């Protein structure tokens, strides 16, 4: 029996709204902002290599998209960031415990 789409969305939301994945997604967003600022606000005599940092920050998943045509090429960092954030959410949940569980010791 396949899980319903509603439970998949709820699970993804629960995993992505943990502090570690949110921090990672914030870092990726900051890298994208930096690359955009570098592209539009800084004059370069030669080509800037700042754009590769988007792929480095979302590797290894985004690297799978590197050889694809242009529209799919830029889907790589989006897919990579989401997959990496989901993996971080799973790790945070497994290693950090679940909400609602008491961390106090009995007396």
How would you characterize the overall build of this protein?
The chain is mainly alpha-helical. It is 63% helix and 0% strand. The chain is built from five helices and no strands. The chain has helices at 5-16, 19-41, 52-57, 70-73, 75-96. α1 (5-16) crosses α5 and α2 packs antiparallel against α5.
Q: Which secondary-structure class do the elements indicate?
A: mainly alpha
Between the first and last Cα atoms, what is the distance in angstroms? 45 Å
Number of helical stretches of at least 4 residues: 5
Order of helices and strands: HHHHH
Residues in β-strands, percent: under 5%
Radius of gyration: 18 Å
Quick structural gist:
With 107 residues, this protein is mainly α. It is built from five helices and no strands.
For this entry, give a set of tags.
107 residues, 5 helices, elongated
Describe the SSE topology.
Blueprint: H1 5-16, H2 19-41, H3 52-57, H4 70-73, H5 75-96
Helix pairs in contact: 1-5, 2-5
């Amino acid at each position: 029996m396949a899980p319903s789409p509603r439970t998949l969305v709820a699970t993804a939301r629960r995993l992505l709204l943990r502090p570690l994945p949110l921090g990672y997604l914030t870092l990726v967003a900051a890298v994208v902002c930096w690359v955009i600022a570098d592209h539009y606000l800084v004059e370069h005599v030669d080509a800037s290599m700042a754009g590769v940092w988007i792929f480095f920050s979302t590797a290894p998943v985004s690297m799978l998209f590197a050889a694809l045509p242009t529209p799919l090429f830029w889907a790589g960092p989006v897919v990579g960031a989401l997959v990496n954030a989901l993996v971080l959410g799973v790790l945070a949940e497994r290693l950090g415990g679940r909400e609602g569980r008491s961390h106090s010791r009995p007396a």
